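re: that chain from earlier
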Amino acid sequence: MRGSKFNCRAEIFENEWKEHDLKHHSRKKGRRVFHAITGFAKYRIYEADENAMKLLAIG
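^ sequence. v structure.
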């Protein structure tokens, strides 16, 4: 699958990322571990086209 092109000019001021191992247990699948990454970023957007704004809305 090919994505649409986008244009964006921005600056990141601060960011922090953490890694987590999430443990889950179910009768059907048994025990499983999911690897997840969460975090935040403070940024300023100077220019963004319509496709860039759609991507930013998704997160």
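The radius of gyration is 17 Å.
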